[in-house]
Amino acid sequence: MTHELEVLVEARALVGEGPIWDDEKQVLYWVDILSSKLYVYDPASGENRGYDLGQHVGNGRAARLRRRHGRATRWFLRRSIWRAKR
């Protein structure tokens, strides 16, 4: 079986990963760990907007979006709620 791939965004990410599809907003969230940015890709408009998180995502940190009245107000990092059991 063969699949064809198409580049949608020329992001030039250093370490891009963690894609999450938001079915309600119809956008794709993803992070570039080394540039400390979270991106929101809107396939309807083709826009890929980046948000500077100020520190690397990963290593137990997760990006979280705060919303008020249906609008994004800010992104911030918080420690992961998942911990390894000893």
Structural account:
The structure is a single chain. This protein has one domain (16-79). Helices cover 0% and strands 49% of the residues. The chain has no helices and 6 strands. It has strands at 16-22, 27-32, 37-42, 47-52, 61-68, 71-79. A hairpin with a 2-residue loop joins strand 5 and strand 6 (71-79). It starts with 15 loop residues before the first strand and ends in a 7-residue tail after the last strand.
Radius of gyration: 15 Å
Percent helix, as a range, is under 10%
Name the beta content range. Answer: over 45%
Instruction: Output the number of helix runs.
Output: 0
Q: Quick one: biggest sheet?
A: 4 strands, antiparallel
Structural class: mainly beta
Q: Helix and strand succession?
A: EEEEEE
> Distance N terminus to C terminus?
43 Å
Strand segment count: 6
Coarse morphology: globular
Q: In order across it, which strands form the biggest sheet?
A: 1-2-3-4
- Mean pLDDT metric: 74
Could you give a short description of this structure?
With 86 residues, the chain is an all-beta fold. The chain contains no helices and 6 strands. The radius of gyration is 15 Å and the shape is globular.
Explain the layout of strands and helices.
Elements (H helix, E strand, L loop, with lengths): L15 E7 L4 E6 L4 E6 L4 E6 L8 E8 L2 E9 L7
Antiparallel strand pairs: 1-2, 2-3, 3-4, 5-6
List keywords for this structure.
mainly beta, disordered C terminus, 0% helix, two-stranded antiparallel sheet, globular, 86 residues
